[in-house]
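Sanity check

After download, print the first record. It should look like this:
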Amino acid sequence: MSSQIRMGRQQGPRKYQEASTVFGDLLALTIYDPLHSEEEDRFVTLGESEKRRLIVVSFTDRDDRIRIIKRTRGNATGEKRL
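Expected structure tokens:
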């Protein structure tokens, strides 16, 4: 089990790195997320990653940095996480 945890920790940053490339998509769509913005403003972006995958990214802006909260593939069910 501990090897799976280490593997997950190693892969996690790479997955977020791909998700962050969505912000470079000129055709990406970003909307305000009023349902999850009680403590801080949150936004959702739908766009294409540099690997040409459709990705949905939930994020907030903290201290002039973007903090990705959640990323999922933009598939039909919207359930499969990267």
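If your output differs, re-run the checksum step. Summary of this record's structure: The CA atoms of residues 63 and 70 lie 19 Å apart.
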